[in-house]
């Protein structure tokens, strides 16, 4: 299956020169400022039609071309003359004025100054520039830049360094905690290849809160089922198949697993958005995603789904990744708040700011309707959730289930420092039975697991151990009993070290 897995990077690419209003005149100069080298490079956009003409018309580039032994020419061609994706204009036209696009443009505009032009984060200026570039027969980066307003744009590369250093700082504590160990021990039987012992089926379910049917991937044990139900919620622009490996580990141990496809923020929605057919996910999805999960539980309870399976719907586990992990925290009773969103989203210099804040800050207008707790949820595993700005700290004491938080120490989308360690430390969450496990060297996407992989999911035994313990299932492993580690990657419970 071909797709862009780095969802956030895909969404932000092409937006660096953004966030400014209607054109006054064509852009003529692009300046790259490098304060750390006490120099800058000016590119004269002019009328050049080729990379060699662009270099000859810009003395700074001409000097660099000589210094690079002629290798700059190929780089300039790739950067400035590469055709823009045909979907770019349609995407911007379909996304203009949407909160998620606006937040992305605000973040991107922090790196760029467009002289004498007022900010505009709607996306309209970008769309207009692309239309004019196409009309002039230059649907590439160079043609696009020429159609931007103002006389000169400047990019301060030191700001890129600041952002990189902030990301490093937001990861450092997690790296140190994971290195300090000890890593969890391994149960060999849980690291052996799985023998399929479940039935896989895709069903579609009508729900009252959405106009479309809800697509659900189901994994049902063939043999000795334990009567317990687990729901796995995918992240932004992803789908159930990205987490089927998690479900396989659970189904092999007797759990019935449901993996809903959240239609307002799944992979299909991403494709439609990039084609300009749908806008980015709106704040209403923050409310609709938990309702998707509750609707599944209602359907099982009423016999519309999994009829005759004898499943316990009063004590259920939910697992989620990224936005799906945020969904699990809402279901557990996390209380959403606008207070931190209002105070932090406008501060582009906030030391804890990270890429996930683009998404979190886009939820502001829907936050007051996002308290969607479900008392049937009694065990939660939240893997890499964006959460720092969303929940009141007092939620920790009133959750209807214990939460296991999992974070990779190299996660550059939802870094462990602000999004996992700080919330756990500030709320003293470990005192209430919640735990934080760090996965050494893992990034935002490497914790996922697809169907039929050669070895069981990296965090599969950990999910199993936590759910066994919280639902009172006497299984092969429990969280406190240990044995949920991996023989190739360190998993470290750092809850008591914060």
UniProtKB/TrEMBL annotation:
<dbReference type="InterPro" id="IPR000073">
    <property type="entry name" value="AB_hydrolase_1"/>
</dbReference>
<protein>
    <recommendedName>
        <fullName>AB hydrolase-1 domain-containing protein</fullName>
    </recommendedName>
</protein>
<dbReference type="InterPro" id="IPR050266">
    <property type="entry name" value="AB_hydrolase_sf"/>
</dbReference>
<keyword id="KW-0732">Signal</keyword>
<feature type="domain" description="AB hydrolase-1">
    <location>
        <begin position="230"/>
        <end position="389"/>
    </location>
</feature>
<dbReference type="GO" id="GO:0016020">
    <property type="term" value="C:membrane"/>
</dbReference>
<feature type="signal peptide">
    <location>
        <begin position="1"/>
        <end position="26"/>
    </location>
</feature>
<dbReference type="InterPro" id="IPR029058">
    <property type="entry name" value="AB_hydrolase_fold"/>
</dbReference>
<dbReference type="Pfam" id="PF12697">
    <property type="entry name" value="Abhydrolase_6"/>
</dbReference>
């Amino acid at each position: 299956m071909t797709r862009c897995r780095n969802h956030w990077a895909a969404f932000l690419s092409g937006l660096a020169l953004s966030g400014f209003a209607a054109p006054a005149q064509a852009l003529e100069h692009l300046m790259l400022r490098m304060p750390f080298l006490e120099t800058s490079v000016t590119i004269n956009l002019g009328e050049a039609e080729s990379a060699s003409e662009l270099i000859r018309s810009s003395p700074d580039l001409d000097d660099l071309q000589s210094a690079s032994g002629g290798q700059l020419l190929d780089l300039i061609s790739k950067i400035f003359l590469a055709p823009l994706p045909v979907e770019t204009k349609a995407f911007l036209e379909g996304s203009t004025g949407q909160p998620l696009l606006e937040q992305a443009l605000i973040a991107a505009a922090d790196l760029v100054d467009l002289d004498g032009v007022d900010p505009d984060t709607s996306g309209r200026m970008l769309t207009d520039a692309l239309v004019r570039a196409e009309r002039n027969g230059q649907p590439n980066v160079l043609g696009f830049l020429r159609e931007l307003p103002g006389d000169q744009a400047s990019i301060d590369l030191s700001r890129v360094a600041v952002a990189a250093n902030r990301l490093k700082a937001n990861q450092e504590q997690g790296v140190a905690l994971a290195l300090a160990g000890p890593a969890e021990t391994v149960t060999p039987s849980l690291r052996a290849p799985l023998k399929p012992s479940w039935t896989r089926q895709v069903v579609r379910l009508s729900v009252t809160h959405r106009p479309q049917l809800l697509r659900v991937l189901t994994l049902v044990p063939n043999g000795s089922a334990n009567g317990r139900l687990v729901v796995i919620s995918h992240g932004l622009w992803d789908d159930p198949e990205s987490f089927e490996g998690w479900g396989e580990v659970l189904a092999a141990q007797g759990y019935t697993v449901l993996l809903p496809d959240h239609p307002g923020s799944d992979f299909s929605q991403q494709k439609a958005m990039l084609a300009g057919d749908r806008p980015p996910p709106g704040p209403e999805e923050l409310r609709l995603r938990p309702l998707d999960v509750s609707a599944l539980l209602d359907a099982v309870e009423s016999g519309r789904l999994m009829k005759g399976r004898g499943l316990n719907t009063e004590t259920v586990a939910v697992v989620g990744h990224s936005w799906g992990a945020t969904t699990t925290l809402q279901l557990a009773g996390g209380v959403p708040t606008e207070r931190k969103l209002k105070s932090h989203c406008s501060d582009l210099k906030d030391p804890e700011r990270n890429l996930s804040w683009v998404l979190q800050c886009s939820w502001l207008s829907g936050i007051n309707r996002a308290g969607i707790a479900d008392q049937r949820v009694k065990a939660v595993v939240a893997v890499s959730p964006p959460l720092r700005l969303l929940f009141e700290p007092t939620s920790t004491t009133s959750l209807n289930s214990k939460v296991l938080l999992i974070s990779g120490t190299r996660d550059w989308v939802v870094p462990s420092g602000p999004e996992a360690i700080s919330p756990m430390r500030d709320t003293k969450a470990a005192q209430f039975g919640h735990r934080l496990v760090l996965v050494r060297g893992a990034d935002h996407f490497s914790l996922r697991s697809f169907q039929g992989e050669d070895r069981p999911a990296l965090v599969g035994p950990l999910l199993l151990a936590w759910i066994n313990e919280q639902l009172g299932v006497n299984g092969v492993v429990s969280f406190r009993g240990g044995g949920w580690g991996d023989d190739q990657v360190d998993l470290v419970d750092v809850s008591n070290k914060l």
